[in-house]
Amino acid sequence: HQSKLDFFCKLGYGKQDICKVLENLGQEALEDDVLKELIRMGSKPQALESQAQPSSLKLVARGSCSTSLGLKWLGEDYSDSSNHLRPIVIDGSNVAMSHGNKVVFSCWGIQLAVDWFRERGHTYIKVFVPLWRKEPPRQDSPIADQHILKELERQSILVYTPSRKVKGKRVVCYDDRYIVKVAYEKDGVIVSNDHYRDLQNENPEWKWFIEQRLLMYSFVSNRFMPPDDPLGRHGPTLSNFLSKKPVLPEPKWQPCPYGKKCTYGNKCKFYHPERPHDAQLSVADELRAKIGGPLSLGKEEEK
């Protein structure tokens, strides 16, 4: 009985099932009969049971990794495809008044600016507007398309800077300080035509940030148009200016204006397509090579 029990235990069957079969068939039953009875009872070896159960671990192809593991190893979140773009902080009052020709607070201009950055892929976009712009428009401060402010506020894009009335007089907080502070903390870009000179004098770090991260713009026939060179002709392009990791352009070699008539030889700083790139001979060595004479040696070798 013990030998049969050990034999079927090695095959992976449970002791309780084996004992039940031996009690039913008797201790003198053959091994084939015991095996048939175990199969009839539905008993399976432990190895087959483990294969039948769904595994919690997922196999991953060699050389690749799952998304979650890859993000943990890299320490970065690549779920957002626009993480390489800088946050955008828009001076809502400046943009709206610019679109309204400095006469009307045009909320449509804010919407045009937001849509332009959305199309580029920016996900962090904040617009700052004073709270009193929610009030009904007056003759001295007309507002156009005021419903756009409610829609942008619902999308968590528009932020109202605080303001209140004290004895009938409106007390307004300085919204420019909100704009510069948020853009500085987020390492983003300020969209405005204002230079914020008063804030530059307050903080030297803000001064550098405003000089390097201020994006000016123009409206051309209801089209929001920032410049292609925000920091001047010799500065970065607009795409590099709005990116956290700018892409450096490939160096372009300027061809030599003299062409094959150049007499500078290997000292020429321009590009010669007719010469090999690895080693350029001097003019004297080129002439000796054509004639078939020996090349010039260095001073130490001549000695």
Automatic annotation (TrEMBL):
GO terms for cellular component: cytoplasmic ribonucleoprotein granule; nucleus. A zinc finger (C3H1-type) spans 250-275. Its cofactor is Mg(2+). Signal peptide: none annotated. It holds the Pfam family RNase_Zc3h12a. Keywords: Endonuclease, Hydrolase, Magnesium, Metal-binding, Nuclease, Zinc, Zinc-finger. It comes from the Eukaryota. Residues 250-275 form the C3H1-type domain. InterPro entries: Rege-1_UBA-like (IPR040546), RNase_Zc3h12_NYN (IPR021869), ZC3H12/N4BP1_RNase_Reg (IPR051101), Znf_CCCH (IPR000571). One of its GO terms (molecular function) is RNA endonuclease activity. Belongs to the ZC3H12 family. This is ZC12D ribonuclease. It comes from Jacana jacana. The lineage of its organism: Eukaryota, Metazoa, Chordata, Craniata, Vertebrata.
